[in-house]
Every structure is written in C-alpha cells, then in structure tokens.
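Re: magnesium ion structure - here you go.
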Amino acid sequence: MALSRQRTYYKAMRRAVATLNSSASAKEKLEVIIRGTARSMKAGTSLVLLDANRKKLIHSFSRGLSQFYLRKGVLDAEASLSEVITGQPVIVPEVAEDSRIQFPEVAAKAGIVSMMGIPVMLGGQAVGSLRIYTKERNEFSNQDVNFVTTMASLAALAISGVLSPKEEEAGVIKSENLVETTPLRKVRPATFAHPSEEEFARILDFYNIEWVYEPRSFLLKWEGERVTEMFTPDFYLPGLDLYIELTTLKQSLVTGKNRKLRRLKELYPEVNITLLYKKDYDHLLAKYGVGPLAQTRAHGISRVLYSVSEIDGRVRALARQISKDYADRHPIMVGVQRGFLCFMADLIRQITIPIDLDFMAISYYSGDESSVVKITKDMDLNVAGRHVIMVEDIVDTGITLNYILNHLRAKGPASLSVCTLLDRRVRRILDVPLDYIGFEVPDEFVVGYGLDYREEYRNLPFIGIPRIEKKRRKKIGRQKD
Ligand code: 5GP
Ligand code: MG
C-alpha cells in the first residue's frame, strides 16, 4: 500500500516536471500539477493564489470537488487558514471541530471532513496555497505532506515562468490570469421550495442562462462557532456573477429579507445579490411573454433565437448606419406587408434623418412549377429619382425580394438598397444584394417580432423557433408575407 502510494506520487511528480519543461502555457502546467495532486491524493485539490495586493485569495484551479463550493463557498470559509501568512503547512483533521475554520457549516455542506493547506512559496514568500480536501477523516502522513509540498513547489515554478524578474522580486503575481476557465456544473434540485422558483428556472433554461439553485448559505450572525443566522439565496447565475432571491407575496417576509440582505451586503461587499419582488418578477415574466401581466404567450416556442435586447441592439446599429449613409439623401423606406411591421416600426424611430415611408403588399399564387409573386398593393409615392431602401423581415430563397427589386428598378429610383432583419443565406436560390443585415439565421423556421406561423406569434417581442414538424416547414416558408 505504502509502496504503491509512493509510486503514484513519483509518477505525478515526474509528469509535472515533464510539463514544466515543455512549451505548455502556465495554465496548462498548473492544470497538470493540480490534476496529478488530486489523483494521487485521491482527494479534492485546489490551488488558491493571493491577488496582486496580497489581500484576497483567488481560486486558480481545482479538481475532484464541486467547482461551485470551491469557488464560492469553501474558499471564503478558509480564508482564515494561516499557511499563506506563516508559510507553514496547516493540517485540519476535523473541519467541523476546528477553530481555524471560520465557517465549518459551509465546508460540511460540501462534504468535507479533513483538509490540508501547503503554502506555495515563490522567492521566499508565500504567494498562495495548495489545498487538499477529503471526504473521509484524514490525518495526512509525512509522506502526504512531503508530496503536496513538492507539488506546491512545482506549481510555484509554473507560476514563476510567467513573471518578469521585477514582478518576482516584488512578489506580485497576476493571479487573475491563472484562473481556471471551465464553467460551473449545474446543480439541479429534485424539488423547488416554491412554484415561482421552478417557473423562474424554466425561464432561465429557455434563455440558456446558466443557474444554480440555492448555491450557498451566507452566514450572517454567529456566536463563537455557533451560527445564529444564515441566508440562502434562491439562485446564482454564474454568467452574471449574480445571486437572486425571489420573494413571495407576503409583506412580512419581505421586510425580514430586506434586513438580511442589508447585513449580507455589509459582510460580503463583493457579492452581487438582487431581491426580486413579486411585482418585478411578474414584469420580468411578461417581458418573456408569460405570467399574469403578459399580453402574449410563448406557448409552442421551443427556444428563443434572438432576445428582446439582442434585437434592440441590432436595430439600433442598423439605424445608426442608415442615418449616416443617407445623411443628405432623404430616402424612401418601403416595407412589404406584413412581417416587416415590428422591425420597420422600431427601425424608423431610431433613424435620425428625414425619411419618407411607404408600403407594398404581395401574395403568392401557384404557377406551373412553383409559386409566383404578385403585387397586390404597389407603392403610393413616386420613386423616380429617389433613394429607396427596401425593408424586409427575412430573405430566404430570395425569390420574393428579387421580384420586388426588379419591379422597383423599373420605376427609375436614384438608388435602391435592401435592409433585412434576418438573412437565411443557406436557403438562397436567387442571389440578391443585401446592404443592411440584422442577423444571419440558421436553417430553422422562425416566428415572432412580426413573423408568423399561420398568423400566430406575430406579436411576440422576441424571435423564436416554434415547434413544428420538419416536413411542414418547406411548405409554409413560401406562403408568408
Ligand atoms: P423568400 O422569397 O426569400 O424565400 O421568402 C421570403 C418570405 O418568406 C419572407 O418575407 C417571409 O415572409 C417568408 N419566410 C421565409 N422564411 C420564414 C421564416 O422562417 N419564418 C416566417 N414566419 N416567414 C418566413
Ligand atoms: Mg416578407
């Protein structure tokens, strides 16, 4: 047993040295060292580094433990361990009973029983710590301590490779650049405490926003080691580094939560947390087309392709460009009914130069081989000698647009350009010139923001993909206006 352990340690060190001597990046080197340590110790392993001000510990790399707890929970809990300050190893066989652990409950929640911290020394100064966490009680033998100390030295060498001599002298390391970039694992609860939480989680999923339910308990008050008050926010959104607490209708609870939140912000000023009131929550749902305040329903939509704010951003950018390009030309903007409606309405309100507005309507009828476009309402304004901008919702095969452009060209405009919100280039049959494009869309039928499926969904504020069987798609693509 002892011998095989030794062999494992030896192998891990040999690998680490080999990578150190390779052209791998500092991050890759650290990753090999941490992985080797975790495997050999059969324990969770994490490397924490002091920030440039030597005030805060920054999580750098970890293996074999819930990423979330390492980054957000345990790390804070053991900020009080002294190895980084004293440069001496610290062994904690019983996390739950040790006064050196500031928040034993947090470690316990992560399933940690014992831990060890070995300082990472660079030029005689501790710059961080290599920490070992075990789920079973462990006293850590001399052999263990020696092995981890060696791995910590190797980690220091990996870090020193990215330092200039000057920085090294000053003990300054760019810890922020040595941080692991793998995403957090999603923690899915079996049950939610409240239906509104489940609804909220569904919305986050719908928008592809990563979330963690009840990620962490913040300790608010304690007497010695006894915790007298904690607060567990409902959600954490790693992408926004934001905690969210949903409130129910009860005003009595809201007051208490507000007080706790104030205390939390005092104790953990680096934590971003938002309290979502019932009213705000309903507004949020409505924005996404669901809930009691929603005018539209997003039922039957499998996913959102472009959110309200994404569309808004693109429309503003297009309007800026058009305003610039047509500064002295007083263009006529022409839309083709009816899919262009939302796009055109938003677009023209962001355009800062004088414009004229006109509309056309078309229908499709079946010809010999395929459907043919027919103009059912022509433009009212005189186009001859004017600068014309065609506004389209989506250009698919290009057949419709090609027909309309030919029709307009015959009227003798000074210039003719096309502004389309969506461009599905993969299905193009006729090559039509597009001057302003909102988004290039994938080969999927889309609805919302003016676009319909059998007249439904036009009033959705976002663009989404409805659930329709594939074989139907081909048919409907050309029936719409
Ligand atoms: P095209 O002639 O370029 O093939 O088709 C243009 C018209 O077909 C568009 O103006 C639009 O009305 C309709 N269309 C094409 N693709 C879609 C789509 O994904 N969703 C919806 N609702 N209409 C589409
Ligand atoms: Mg159209």
